[in-house]
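My main concern about presentation is that the manuscript never shows what a single data entry looks like. For the editor and my fellow referees, an illustration may be useful. For illustration, here is how one protein appears when written out as sequence plus C-alpha cells:

***
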Amino acid sequence: MVCTLSVEENGFEIHPGFLDNDSINKIIDEIEALDSDFPKHGIRNAEKKLASVKKLVDSNLLRNKAESYLSGNPEVVRVMVFDKTPDKNWLVTWHQDKTISVNDKKAIPGWGPWTLKDGINHVQPNLKVLEDMVTFRIHLDDANESNGCLKVIPKSHSLGILSKNEQDRVVRESEEYTCLAKPGDLLIMRPLLLHSSSKGTTPHHRRIVHIEYSGFKLPQGLTWA
C-alpha cells in the first residue's frame, strides 16, 4: 500500500485501495435501501443507522490504523456519511473541524460553545483534545474536482485553533492541495487541518464515510456520544 504525504508533517495522508470492493458495495447497498425520503446526502450518527458502517467503524482494520496516530485507545467521536448529488450539491467554505459529540452537557473550563445536533450534545473542547484526534474519510466513489472533492491547506493543522480572519489569511497566503481519490481510498487528516470543498461542476455520487477517532481521556462523567 503506497502512502503519499504525511499526517505528522502535512496534516493529512492518502492511502490508496484501503477498503475492498465487497465492503464498499455493502455500504452503498444499505444506503440505497433506506426509505426514499431519508436524507441520504448527510447521515449523522451513521454507525447507529447503518449496520455495514457500524461493522467498519468497530473493525480492527480501522482501530489499529487509528491507534497509530493517537496517544491512547481509539474512541469513536463522530460518524457521518456524505453524498453530493445533482439534487444536493453544496459548497463548504474553508474551516477547521472544532467540535466533538458527547453524551451530556457539563460546565468545563475552556470548553464551549455547546450545541445540540440530531439530539446529540456537541461542544468545542480545548486544543489538547482536538490535537489528539484523527479523521478517516473513506471514499465509496471517485472524488475529483468535477464532483466537489476535498481541498486542504497542508501544514495548517499545526497552527492551533484559528479565528475566521486568521483562517482567511492562511488560505490567501498558502497553496491548496486537491485530494483526488478512487473508491476504497482512505484520506487521513487532523481535524484542525483547514479544508473545504466546492460545488460539483458535473455532480454525481461522491459518497464518503467520515469517521473521527480520539485518544483523549474525557473528563469524569462524560463519554463519547
